[in-house]
Design goal:
The structure is a single chain. The protein has 9 helices and 7 strands. With 221 residues, it is mostly helical. α8 packs across α9. The longest helix is centred in the middle third of the chain and has 44 residues. It is rod-shaped. The mean pLDDT is 93. The structure holds zinc ion.
């Protein structure tokens, strides 16, 4: 009979009446000992042990489990069931990868935290990064002190006078480096300010201070 040829393989196997509906895929693992895993389910179509059970329901309400391989073998006999199980497999694969990623991240965090604790223990409460930052800040402060001392002759004059934003900027610069590294135009202005702090423009005192400024800047370093 023609109808016999079109019977669904699951129906032929006595699992129920077609059409069949996909319910879910679930993992069924049997563990005889810690770390040991083996399939905990049995395919009701081929009787093989299976770890992933595809739960299927027949149209007359019989629910049974088969392996993914047996669903895939249905091929054109039940395209819909095949694609549903394929999708479910992809979803399981995604979830598995996500779980692996999460676990890897968790272990990295534990390792990182242990390393931070090791550093804090070794450095009296600070991480290596914090130690380095503290050292850098100290070096910067020491450097600033050094430059303020070196440039003190000019620094004091500027500090005592009118504090325009230009002067504030110059004071900042004098805390970080030599006068000779300032822009030429700025050096000329500072020279004038310095000389004027000694005497009126055109006076002997002014000229002397101007010369003194030049020689100090030339002999910096
Ligand atoms: Zn099977």
């Amino acid at each position: 009979m023609v109808e016999q040829e079109t019977l669904h393989p699951f129906e032929l196997a006595g699992l129920g009446e077609a059409p069949f509906r996909f319910v879910t895929v679930r993992k069924n693992v049997y563990s005889a000992a810690p770390g040991h895993q083996q399939p905990g389910g049995t395919c009701q179509y081929c009787s093989q042990g299976i770890m992933y059970e595809c739960v299927i329901r027949s149209s007359d309400g019989k629910e049974f489990v088969v392996g993914q391989d047996c669903v895939m073998k249905l091929d054109r006999a039940d395209n819909r069931l095949v694609s549903q199980v394929k999708r479910a497999k992809l979803q399981i694969e995604r979830e598995r990868r996500e779980a692996i990623r999460a676990e890897k991240y968790r272990l990295q965090e534990i390792t990182r935290e242990a390393e931070m604790n090791r550093q804090r223990e070794a450095n009296g409460g600070l991480t290596d990064w914090e130690v380095a930052a503290k050292q850098k800040a100290a070096e910067r402060a020491a450097g600033r002190k050094q430059w303020i001392a070196k440039n003190e002759w000019l620094y004091r004059v500027l500090e005592a006078g009118y504090r325009s934003s230009f002067i504030e900027g110059m004071l900042d610069s004098l805390e970080c480096g030599p006068v000779s590294e300032l822009p030429e135009r700025a050096i000329a202005i500072l020279q004038d300010i310095y000389a004027k702090s000694h005497g009126r423009r055109g006076s002997k005192a002014y000229a002397a201070a101007e010369a003194e400024f030049e020689s100090k800047v030339e002999n910096e370093g």
